[in-house]
User: Fold this.
Amino acid sequence: MDQIHERLTEIVGAAYVSDAAEEKFIYSRDQGVQEPHAPDYVVLPGSAEEVSAVVGLANREKIPVVPMGGGLVLSGLTIPQKGGIVLDMKRMNRIIEVNEKSHYAVVEAGTSQGMLDAYLKKHHSALKHSLPDAPPVATIAGNIAIHGSGHLSQSEGGFHSEMVTGLEVVLPTGELVRLGSCSTVPGWFSRAPLPDLVGLFLGWNGTTGVITKVGIKLYPRPPYHDVLVFMTEDIDAAPDILCRIINTGMAEDINYALAPKPDYLNGFQMTVINITAHSEEELGMKKKIIRESLRHYFETKEAGFMPVPPNLKANFLEVPQKALSKFADVRKGGGFEYVGAIMPLEKIPQACRAGMEITGRIGITYSLGARIIGRGHSAMFFFAYPFNRADASEVGKVARALEETNETALKLGGIPWKTEISGQQLILRQMDPQTRELMEKIRGVLDPNRIMNPGNWEVA
Amino acid sequence: MDRDYTELLHRCFRCGWCKLPTNYQDFNCPAYLKYRFESFASGGRMWLIRAWLNGEIEPGERFAKILYSCVTCRNCVEACALPNIKDRLVDIFVAARADLVEQGRIPPAVRDYLKALSVSGNPYKMPQEHRGNWAEGLGIERYHGQEYLFYVGDVGSYDEVGMRMARSVAALLQSAGVSLGILGEEETSDGNDARALGEKGLADYLAGQNIGTFRNKGVKKIITLSPHGYNAMRNEYPVCGGVFEVFHYTQIINLLLGGRIRPGEYLKRVTYHDPCYLGRWNNEYGAPRRILGSIRGLVFVEMDRNRNNALCCGGGGGNFFTDMLGTGPDLSSRARVREALATGAEIIAVACPQCYKMLDDAVKAEGAQDAIEVKEVSEIVSASWGSHL
Assistant:
């Protein structure tokens, strides 16, 4: 056994360190089209102290460290580009605190979305957190670290990173720090009024440290839930339709989608409006107000509300939606990639046309759509491409489509989200040089040996 | 490996839905719960099998451990998001194990189990003539045309806990006037776990032996002690030419409720642990619950993971004998005991000799002997029905 392996074993225990071929294979790749790179070790820490000791060791020995949550990012952000240690955080999945009055939960970084949801349903049934449409094993920490969004992003305040009330983080040099109110007083209720250091660890793809605990906002869980689906063929009407719905203030979640299948819906766009309420009367009133906001469209027969069959309704009401994972098998090949671009709402029609143009030209299938973030403050527009992992030519086509889509998103005035390294380079090239320099300075201070997830956000 | 399977391997997206039960409460795969590396989850296994078939990794000791740590509980099948793949997941793992068996790359513990089964007809390496010892003093006759054959299986024949359970079930059925006989030394292992370990040839041979014996004796109806035997005889024996009416003993007790079995009072708080081979494999969730529900004074509480979401005790797929999950607090049996304790139950009711032993050991490992006890369904019925016994 080499010395590093021995030290890692001393820190986390022999059962939780592996340099076996099987783990090297699995942790060298994700579900997307990025090239695999094998780690030297996979380590499963059980506490923040163990993370601190592992990162401290890695810093002294100048070994790369890649933190990993659910491993579902698809864009290769947890692929160890330069080997080193992959820190799989999922053993750290304790739910530490739920504060019903101040509406927050504190969880360890490996806690999954599903586990927190189940815990809240059982012990604090009046509260919920915003769930992404990722599978429920996606972690809270991983999702906030990539600026994820979810089913409360429209109604309750934007990206999940905006719902963070505090963090505990291991710095690249091994120190354990707390950020937000928990740095000063016992409660994890707020980032304000302190200097906001939380942002140093959000959107950085694990290049500035390892998140070990998260304080996350909780929201009421109204017992009544229904869905409306509005259909139109006019792509250019999408921003207006979405704004009318948003401005009613009645919707919990608003998603927009178009796909070439099934054939009879090809050309139609679907706006899925989720509504929750505390009573049937409130639910009915909310639906009525939303319908009213779109009267212009259905009176002119340009668009209308679709009767939603029970099985489809069940899919729309499910959070997260299991049906979305089935999309990965559309090509009977277990592959699925997407560019999620954060962009202004008014760019949705152009993004749709660009997505259809790119996929038509390259010859792959697609699903396009958007989740509204905040009260129309932006949209997470997705260009999703399923593929057959066993078909190298199709994998190549999707990789090409991703590159082109990243470029297109930037040209349209959006920014690719949680994008792979080539997409990060596109962003950095277009970024204000002073901003880029600031990012470099911050990383230089935090991570002098550049051990954290090397390859990501690296200024060429 | 069967081409039908190889064409499914690459379609696993490794999305991870399979890791959680449908209520998302906690990890539901005993192997993943114990080892926590992605490689030990069902998706990891799918990708590694594909890598092996593509020549990207060698099937070494670790690979065999990953494949054999699957307890075939089918929790992943319940939770998988892909309808075209989910039903085949465990079949794929078993098929991959079969390839390892063929290539002689199985872990020593699996080899020893299969060897004992081949040589002694049981995994305990006990003499065949001891098979009927569990029934001593009960006055049960050998099968000679009674309505039912009571098939006890390996654990019921040789394991101390299993034998206690076999005696309890037999005594209850006898006292209810059920016409039954046993095979004693003529009984052979049901082969269910040999099949799960990838040794189809041995499983078929054992099935053939039992089918021959059953036929020679004119057996039409079988009551099994173990859900493992129930599964083999209900689903595998017909493929081998042996078609019988097969019941798990809880189904018979359930049929007799209110008639020949009238439970009395049992003033305990009880939860029920679903055995995988009765529940997920054979969709029988109701009978044991109806039995417990018929007992006066018994307060029945469900664990959060129940029925098709129930966490496996870790004893399925041959692991009861091969112990590929080892020890420690992350064993699913210990997690299950903690889950039962959280309900406030005083009793964990079981309906499988393997679950009985696994959970009984886990109660001790958790140091919870003063708080909770494992009891088998017929023991609870008999305790409530004491005056009849």
